[in-house]
Each structure stands twice: as C-alpha cells, then as structure tokens.
Design a protein that fits this description.
mainly alpha; 0% strand; 450 residues
C-alpha cells in the first residue's frame, strides 16, 4: 500500500504545482458559472443557443489543446534537462502554427456563420440568436489561441501564479461586462446573447494583450521573438509534429465526437439541452482538480522523465492518481449534497430542473472514475505515448459514446436524461482500458535525450 501514497514532501511538491492551477481554473469555472447564470436569466432558449453556438469554438479549442499539449511535453522535458533555448523555440512554433489554425476558424465564421449553427440545430429561433452571438464571438478565436499558447507554455515549466493573475483579470472583466451588456446596466443597451459575446471578445483581447506585454518585458522566462516566429526551427518542428499530429488529431476527433454526442442529446430533447449546459458548467467547478493534477503530471512526471529518473516517474504517477481520487471523492460528495439547490439560479422549466438535479448527482458519483481516466491520459502523454492516448480518448469515444448515443437517439424513443446517464456510465469501461495502457509502460521514456 505504501507504493500508492507519498510522504509529506511529495504532497507538498505536488500541491505547490497543482494549487495555483486549481485556483486559476476555479476562478475561470466560477465566472463561467456566473456567465451561464446570466445568459440563463435571459431564458432557457438563450442558454441553449449559446451552448449550440459554442460547439464550433470547442472544436477549434480542442485543436489548440492538442497542439499546446504536444508542445508542453517537449517543453517540460527539455526544461527538466536544462535546455532552455529549445523551450523558447517550441513556443515560437506553437504561436505561429496556432495563429494560422485560429485564423482558418475565424475565416469560416466570416464566410459561413449559419452553417456552423446548422451543424447542431435548425430551429429558427436558435439559428437567429446564434447568428447574433457569432457576430462578436468570431473575433475571440485568434486572441484565445495566442493567450492559450502562452498560458500552456508557462504552465509547462511551473510558472503558474502569473496565469492566475491574468486569468482573474480576464474573468472579472468578462463578468462585469456581461452584467452591463446582457441586461443593459449603467446606460448600456440590453443586448442579450449578443452582449455576452461582446463581453467575451473584450475580455479575450485584454487577456492576449497582457500575455504579449509579459513576453515583450521578458520577465517570465519566455520572450516575444519576432524573428523566431518567422524563421522557425524546422528540425525541431519536425520532431514536435511527430507527437503533435496524433495528439492534435486525438483532440480534434474527440471534439467532433463530443459534438456528435451533443447532437444526439439535441435529437432526444432540444429543450433539455439547457439543463445539460448547466450540469457541465457546474461540474467544471469540481473538475478543477483535473487541471491541477494534469499540470502536476506534466511538470512532475515530465521533468522526472526528462532527467532520466524513470522509476521515480512510474512511482510518482501512481501516487498522483491515488491523490486525485481522494480529492475527487470529497468534491463529488459536496456536489451531490448541493444538487437540489442549483436550479434556483436559473429560469428553467420543471422538467429541466428535475433533469439538472439527477444528472449532477450521477456525475458527482462518477467523479473518482473521471479523475482516474484524466490522470492516466496525462501520464501517458507526459511520456509521449500519444498513440495510446488517442486510443483511450477519441478512439474509445467513437466506438462507445458516439455509437451508442447515435443509435439510441435515432432508433429508440429514449429521453435525454437516461441517454446522458448511459453515456456517462461508459467511463467505467474506459477506466479499465486506461489502466491496461498505463501498466504496459510504453510512456516511460526520456524524450529530451532524442
């Protein structure tokens, strides 16, 4: 049993990495909850509309997550090996490639905004409101891409406090502007969902500006290297792409898969999708443990692998997973208890209120399973075993939740609540598959020595 638990120094080191990230994600998730509540105050249809309109953004975000995740693997291990110059070159590659990717998504929203809504809904009211939201939302993609790249690069080397400060400034700006622009306060017109998009756009521009200023001032390890952004290190890029392509493909397929599952929910009961939106937003408050532990794994495990301390990395991986399970049990219990009271924050129908309570309680009970799956994913990724992460992540999603939700929503009269519960329970199967890949040990390798 001792091999599953660390000493006081171990937990002190892990929490020193994880807590600032958890704090940052708590601030973000809490403000997202407020954002969700504010839009929900306009009405259930408005909440469904914003959820639908943001699905296209989630696809773009997943690509950035995969790209930055691959870069994070290399940054963490090279930083652990003392190769600081390569860390800057990796950031340059990420900024350039990320800018191109987000520019493509922005272009699609300029040329065919209605098509991005029709992917998930053709209800006239949702389409019309969705187009209002996209009017401003399309300007958030490039700023988000730049900010997210900088944030993940800093996170990979343990610079977490600055992210908390930037994140706090961003989300507070977004919250205040949401209140003013959605409801028409302080002399501003009441803009509804369009106001929510405008508030997000301004907040994202502020966030990007802060990160660029930090790079220009060169006080946080990295710098804004304009020459390096144009003349990239192609040999390093080739090496990175070997990991980035499968990892980014995984995130892309995962996002498309979750979008297809979302479409199945829309097919089962479009109106109750608002309840699912609330569930996901509330659960993100508990899922902050994921962000903290994933960063701890990337830095802690990635650094050990980069320093060629392979056995220590294997031992520490088990301890972090067990630690995550214990924390998730506490958070899950808390959410289970407050589930009946959350609906008071929203203007929902009685049916949606019932669905909200049931779904939050189901997800709170499954919290330890989610943590095990997420931690295992990041352990495999820390060692560059991107093929295995793709199989247990997007691979399982497509043969499990996507296939099951599509078949049930098309060929049976199943409601959205039992469908949602069925899909969530599939994570139990995923956990056993993830354990097999972890035990196989292909992730235990030093990429910095390549």
């Amino acid at each position: 049993m001792k091999s599953f638990f660390g000493d006081k120094l171990f937990y002190k080191e892990v929490t020193a990495i994880a807590l600032p990230i958890m704090a940052q994600q708590f601030v973000t998730s809490f403000v997202n909850l407020i954002d969700n509540v504010m839009v929900g105050g306009v009405g259930q249809t408005a909440l469904t509309t914003v959820t639908v309109a943001n699905r296209f953004y989630m696809i773009a975000s997943s690509i950035m997550f995969g790209l930055c995740g691959a870069a994070g693997i290399y940054i963490a291990q090279n930083y652990g090996a003392g190769k600081n110059e390569r860390c800057q070159k990796i950031l340059n590659i990420n900024l350039s490639v990320g800018f191109l990717i987000m520019s493509l998504f922005t272009g699609v929203l300029f040329v065919a905004p209605e098509w991005t809504i029709h992917l998930f809904s053709r209800t006239p009211e949702i389409v019309d409101l969705g187009l209002e939201y996209i009017y401003y939302a399309k300007f958030t993609y490039i700023p988000y891409g730049i900010s997210f790249t900088c944030m993940m690069a800093m996170r990979a080397i343990g610079l977490n406090k600055i992210q908390l400060k930037v994140g706090t400034a961003t989300v507070l700006t977004n919250t205040v502007l949401n209140y003013i622009l959605i409801y028409g306060k302080l002399g501003a017109p009441a803009m509804g969902v369009k106001g929510a998009a405008l508030a997000t756009m301004i907040a994202r521009l502020l966030e990007m500006t802060i990160y660029l200023v930090l790079l220009i001032r060169q006080r946080h390890f990295y710098k804004l290297d304009l020459k390096g952004l144009i003349f990239l290190d192609w040999s390093l890029m080739k090496s990175m792409l070997a990991k980035a392509v499968p990892l980014t493909a995984n995130e892309l397929f995962f996002s498309i898969g979750t979008s297809l599952v979302f479409k199945s929910y829309m097919r089962a009961d479009e109106l109750l999708v608002a309840a699912i939106s609330v569930v996901d937003t509330v659960m993100n408050l508990a899922f902050i443990v994921f962000g903290g532990l994933s960063s701890a794994i990337a830095i802690f495990i990635g650094g050990k692998l980069g320093a060629n301390k392979l056995e220590e990395a294997k031992s520490d991986a088990k301890k972090i997973i067990v630690f995550g399970v214990m924390v998730s049990m506490v958070l899950g219990a808390a959410l289970f208890c407050i589930a009946p009271y959350i609906h008071h924050l929203y203007a929902l129908s009685d049916e949606a209120i019932h669905a909200l309570e049931v779904l939050i309680r189901i997800k709170s009970c499954l919290m330890p399973i989610y943590v095990v799956n997420v931690c295992t994913f990041y352990v495999l990724r820390a060692g560059g075993d991107t093929f295995s992460t793709m199989l247990i992540d997007s691979g399982f999603l497509w043969v499990g939740p996507v296939a099951v939700s599509t078949l049930l929503s098309i060929f049976t009269p199943i409601g959205v609540v039992p469908l949602y519960i069925t899909i969530e329970l599939l994570d139990l199967v995923k956990m056993f598959i993830a354990f097999w890949f972890l035990k196989r040990g292909r992730w235990v390798r030093n990429l910095a020595a390549d």
